[in-house]
Amino acid sequence: MPNALRPLIALVLLLCADASLLAAAPPTAQTAPEAALDATAETAPAAGAGATPQSGGGDDFIRATRIYFPRSAGRLYFEQSAVPEKVAEGVSLRYGYDGATFAIDIFVYPLGRMSEAKALDYSTQELLRSFEQAQQLGYYSDVKLSRPRDLKIRLNPFVTLPARQFEYTAQRNGVPVVSHSLLLYRSYYGIKVRISAPKAEKRMAKTVAQQVAERLLPALRLSHVGSCANQNGITFATADSLPRNMPRVSADGSEVVVKRGQEPGKLLLEAMMRKADSACAQNFDKEEVAAGEQFETLEFPAGVWHDSAKSAPAATD
Questions:
Q1: Where is mean pLDDT largest: 96-100, 227-231, 271-275?
Q2: Distance between the two ends of the chain, CA-based, in angstroms?
Q3: Please, which pLDDT band fits residue 146 given cuts at 50, 70 and 90?
Q4: Residue 92: beta bridge partners?
Q5: Which range of residues forms the domain containing residue 267?
Q6: Which of 99-103, 274-278, 295-299, 313-317 has the lowest mean pLDDT?
Q7: Which residues are within 8 A (CB) of 212 and not within 5 positions of it... i.e. 6 or more apart?
Q8: What is the Cα–Cα distance from 184 to 86, expressed in whole angstroms?
Q9: Are 73 and 110 found together in one domain?
Q10: Is residue 316, in this structure, part of any structural domain at all?
């Protein structure tokens, strides 16, 4: 067992011993377990569904976010970052790869609290829309899009995140290109990876996409300041039966649904790991930057987080 996990497991035992630290299940959770996990955009800060932000003391759910990223990950190396004038559009990161002539662009943009499935569907729709727009504007022609491939991004032994990958070929300024787009939802934010390479580097582009999924994306992390810091409990709900493909733990770790009579066990560990990954505090005073890591900060004026999805994701080809 990795030493880093032992304090978390000890904390699980403490939580199990002190039921006051765990939130009670809502009355409707037993009859509608899907709703318990998909508490999403209707009740939280909001992103694509015109929601109202959760707040504590009149504060927005998230007032600021730090996006931490590594200077290198394997053969991937950081080149530059940018924060647009409209902070709701998020942060863009550019990486290179040893031996490749093309760049790897990563866009991290606010979406809000929702299920991973809804976030991926929303980001997919935006991506497909950007393809259409790029063709209309003449950036691309003869676009041929493959069927999307679902994959998993492994953060740690307890948490894997669903992701969606697209591959397509096109003509750009008369030059054949092959591109990969990877979509992920993590810690209330959408993440989009774009790799566009000359057709001659098709094999290299595929290798790079795999390295980004396996090494770079797990190394990213987000930390928030806002009233989200007031919501550190874990809500449990029980159900007589659960759909096979239904997630048992919400994306941010705040809700767990278990089959009646089942011990939470690993689900509780996963919930705690997810909550740690969606870290939120009253300020950044205790934040530490790891060796080989740097960050960009998004600071949201009052109410901007609530309206963020109207302009995000803003990064398109």
A1: 96-100
A2: 44
A3: confident
A4: 82, 107
A5: 3-60+230-281
A6: 313-317
A7: 76, 95, 104, 106, 182, 193, 195
A8: 22
A9: yes
A10: no
User: CB neighbours of 119 closer than 8 A, spacing ≥ 6?
Assistant: 111, 185, 190, 251
Those residues with Cβ within 8 angstroms of residue 85's Cβ, 6 or more apart along the chain or in another chain? none
SS3 260: coil
- Please tell me the pTM assigned to this model: 0.77
Could you tell me if 188 and 124 are in contact, meaning their C-beta atoms sit under 8 angstroms apart?
A: no
pLDDT tens per residue across span 186-213: 999 999 999 999 999 999 999 999 999 9
211/297 same-domain check: yes
Residue 183: other Cβ atoms inside 10 A = 23
**What's residue 162's pLDDT?**
94
**Strand, helix or coil for residue 165:** strand
Burial 17-45 (b: 16+ CB within 10 A, else e): eeeeebeebeeebeeebebbbbbbbeebb
Q: Quick check: is 249 in a domain?
A: yes
Cβ-proximal residues to 153 (8 Å cutoff; 6+ apart), any chain: 160, 161, 162, 163, 184, 213, 217, 218
Based on the domain organization, do 54 and 69 belong to the same domain? no
Residue 259 lies in a domain: yes
pLDDT for the residue numbered 215? 96
pLDDT at 50: 30
> CATH no. for residue 187?
3.40.1000.10
Mean pLDDT of the 275-295 span: 90
Whether 52 and 71 share a structural domain:
no
pLDDT, tens digit, for every residue of 37-90? 332 222 233 333 333 333 333 468 899 999 999 999 999 999 999 998 888 789
69 and 56 part of one domain: no
Question: Beta partners for 182?
Answer: 165, 193
In whole angstroms, what is the distance from residue 69 CA to residue 57 CA?
31
Instruction: Considering only the C-alpha atoms of the chain, give the largest distance between any 2 of them, rounded to a whole number of Å.
Output: 66
